[in-house]
What we know:
Helix content is about 80%, strand content about 5%. The protein has 19 helices and 7 strands. Helix 1 runs antiparallel to helix 17 (about 975-1055) and helix 13 (about 670-810) packs antiparallel against helix 14. The two termini are about 120 Å apart.
Amino acid sequence: MAKYAPKHLEVSVGDEPHRAFAGHKTARLAVTAATTIAMTGSSLLAPFSAFANDLSDTTAQDAIMSPLAAHAGEAAGSAVKTNAQKIADLQAAIDAAKAAEAEAKSDYDTAVAPYTEKQTVRDNAQTAYDASVSDNSQAEAAARAEYARQLDESVKAANSASATLKDAQSKLDTAKADAESKTKALDSAKQAAADARAKLEEAQKAAANATPEEIKAAEQSAADAQKVLDQAKAAKTAADSALADAQQARSAAQSAYNEASGTLASAQQAKTAADGKVVAAQAAYDSAQADLAAAKAGAEGPEYDAAQAKVDAARSALDQAKQQQAAAEAGLSQANSDVASKRDALTGAESELEAKKQTVAAAENDVTAAQAKADAAQSELTSAKQVHAAELEKAKAAQKQVDQAKAEKEQADKALETAKTNQAAADQAVVDAQKAYDTGKAAADKATTAEAQSVIGFYQFIGANDAADIIYKQSDLNPTTIGDKKDGTSLDNAKLSFGKLREINEYRKSVGLSELKVTAEQMAIAQSNSNYSDAMLDHSDYARFENAAWNYDLKRNVAHQWVDEEKNIFDQAAAKAGLGEIAPKDAWDTFWSHGTEFGEQKVGFGTVGHYLNIVQPDAKTMGYGINSRGTHLSYTYILEVDDNYGSYEKEYSIDELESLFDQYQLSLSKASENLAAAKANLEQKRSTAASKADAVKAAETLVAQKREGVDTANSNLATENGNVAGAAAEVAQAEQNLAKANGKVAEAEDQVKAAQSNVAPAEQVVNQKRAELKASQEQAAQSQKKVDDAKAEALLKQQALQDARKELAKYSADVAAAQEKADKAHQTLDEATAAQTSAQSALEKAERDAAAKKQALTIAKDGVEAKAATAEHAASDLTTAENDFASKQAHADALNNAADNLATAEAAKKDADAAVTAAETALSATNDAVANAEQAVENSQAAPDAAAAALGKLKSVNVENGIATGSDANANDTLNALFAKCVAAKQAEHNAKAALDAAQADLDAATPAYTAALNAYNEAKAKRVAAEQALKDEIARQEQEAAKAEQAKITQAAAKPVAGKPSTGNAKTAANSALPTTGDKAALAGETFVIGGVVLVAAGVFLTDKKRRQE
């Protein structure tokens, strides 16, 4: 991007010094020297109280003359003189000290007057400064308080506006929610109306179909359905009863199986116990046999041997008898087991036979029910065929009505088409007139807008919206004011630019270059950038190949202004570089191909860019902008040059674009005239269209009437055709139902036959099982007799053995005992073995019994499942029968009550339509409320923005800066006035501070002399006080001595009184009576006393403390 512009001076603006003011300072108080009077305990004295206790004030002191003076003449020798001389010397010292003090006092008086005056000036300045500081603080506080007040009010206003908007929004939300609710209510009402309409149509159809034949058929169908229902109920009752029995049998079988399982467990435990006893008995028997063998080994003799032989024979016979008994018992056990097995088999066979008989009964019930349904289906088919024939006749009559209604409607349609054609033409004329009016109105309205009075309106006029957008988009950087006649976008400056464009092409043509076209987009860029260059004396960031110039008038050919000087520079540089004379049309390529050579001549694009931009050989388009605001010079010119490579911008010749521009300006001037003509034409066309519309309405009314007739006829025909179709469907359905019912009958009959075929084999099995049971029972009786005979024989053999044992005992007691023991062990073993055998038999019987009971339980469970399936089937059949009966009875009732139902449906339809109307009214009112609420929100939206803007502006106020400078750009007049007062108060404080500093300086200058005089005076005063204290001390000493002497004389006088002559003490008392006493308060300053020839001057000796003690 080539950017080049003339250099310009930058104005350097120095920073204005910031005046700073010192803070408050504590007023300096002059420090006056003070002398501590050690003897009197004087306090530190301030300058203004330094003279509070000078020599001129004696009213508060008591002058005391010591009694020592009364006895001065009585003192003997040099000692008296010495005391008096001491007092005189001390008095002289006092006088000297007083003189020095008086002199120092005079010097102090001389120094204190100017010091006090300057101190007063300083104090007044301090007071004035303190007042100015207070005034300044109050001014700042007032400014801050006012800012705080305004901020608080602004915040409250913003909050109030926000609250108002929030309330309006809340009301809008409520209104919308209410509208939504009302909409749902309307939808519900419409749905209810639709439902009512459907029911009405059904009622109308039912009323039309409620012929005597239909009613009779429906009643017969209901009666048939009732029969089927009764049979289904009976079948359901029987199935439920059979299921209950089967469930009871299953419970009994379950109990029996549970009992058998318990018996089996007990038998298993008994068998285990019997096995253990056999083992123990066998061990005992083996032991007894061993003992017997040992006993026999010691026995001998023929009698013994004969007896033993008898025992052995008896035992052998007993063993054989027991074996026969065991065999008989085993046979009996087997026989009993066989009887139980045969009995269980018989029970199972009998149960199976009963189940098959019940299956036969259920199948026979199914046949009865199926036949009833088939009979009902046959009756329904007969009725359906009768109804179908009647509906066909009705449909033929309805078709004739439709044909007549259609013929009448066709005539009405033709009339309506003619009326609509006329209306369409009139309406199109209105549309065209309206468009013309709208165009004229828009043009008239737009002609007065800022955009219309700028190139934006022109670009929109020619469809160059991108050019208009460029001006809008570049306004973020370029300071564009739409509508300003001096702005680069003004129509006046745009008109001037066409001449300047021609200047560019004239020069290009003169040097053999092609003339450039113009695009609206390049014009817009130049016009927008001219605003930036006018303000900033620089190129805008939106520039590409751009030239800029600033002139005082329009007379100069800017093309030559850009070209002449820079061409000369270019030509000279080319010549120096050895490139020869370069034609303007070759200058661009030469410069870029010989950049090094031009660089050596210190000629860059920034030096000759204006010239090179104008003579670009590949340039195709340009744009020109003029700004006449005159921020720096009167006119700013901007030229944009572009190769327009790959651009979609439409190219114009200068004449073409200017012609369009002139047309646009002409359209602005004629906008109002065109609007008036368009308005009159629109009104005339609307009047014509209204009359045509009335004709259409009349034709539409007639068509609507005829359409309603057709619709009614079609509706009747459709109803009748529907009835015919419905009747035909009913016939078809009845035929299907009959076929299905007959099929069910056949299936049920087949099931009966199949069930019956299973009964005979089951009966044969039962008979066979009975015979087998009888044979087993007979065999068991025979086995029982054998057991009884074997037991009797075993008892006889047992007795014979006992007899043989007794005989054996006669010959060998040991053998007999051992033999008895062995026999008992053998018997015990036999019993244990028998018990084991019995337990084994019981276990096997329990196992067989449990297995049989389990099988019986399985059969019972299967029976329950079968009965449950039958009951479920019966329940399903009952439900079907109930639904069928309810449907057919309802149909019969509907036909019988068709008239009443129609009246009810019509009333319901009327109520539903009224509900829709009411809901629509309610929704309309709610929609109005929503609109009002939306308007309230819209009305309330500006206030928060304005309040927020005001608050934002107020928050942007820099209070401290305003206090310091006296104003703030964002502050109002009231706040700026307070800021100005702050500056004035700050200046007054500054001035007062300066005056205070000057007064303090004067006071500080006078302080040394004053301090020296004060110190000298205090020092002299201290010396005087010290001298007086010395005199007091001496007088006190002498008084003490005199008191001692006086006391001695009084003691002597009391011992030797002198009559008629005053004693020395009396004389002294008389003499003293003329002197002031200790308690007198007469001032003695300056009084002279003679004591022993020594002159004493009571020079104001102050003994206040001593006097107080004496009192």
